[in-house]
Amino acid sequence: MNENSQHFEVAQPDAKAPLFHAEAYNNIEKSIVEIQLKDYRGKWIVLFFYPSNFTFV
After folding, report:
1. Measured between alpha carbons, how far is 36 from 46 in angstroms, rounded to an integer?
2. Which segments constitute the Alkyl hydroperoxide reductase subunit C/ Thiol specific antioxidant domain (predicted)?
3. SS3 label, residue 38
4. Domain segments of the chain: what residues?
């Protein structure tokens, strides 16, 4: 791979998700907040992502 390549891993059953941070909408605060996976360590969490949320079909 060259320095501009990106490496993506395919999710596997029973595999731990890599640590990450991302922006998310907080419905209580009515604002965009930064979340980190490490903040949920030891808790149940469902990661749900759908890339076409705000695109026109």
Report:
1. 13
2. 15-57
3. helix
4. 18-57
Those residues with Cβ within 8 angstroms of residue 7's Cβ, 6 or more apart along the chain or in another chain = 1
Beta strands in 1-57 (DSSP E): 21-26, 31-36
Spatial separation of the C-alpha atoms in residues 22 and 24, rounded to whole Å: 6
- The pTM score is 0.52
pLDDT digits (tens, 9 = 90+) for 1-57: 556 677 777 778 888 888 889 998 889 999 999 999 999 999 998 877 676 666 665
Q: How many CB atoms lie within 10 A of CB 35?
A: 14
| Amino acid at residue number 1 | M
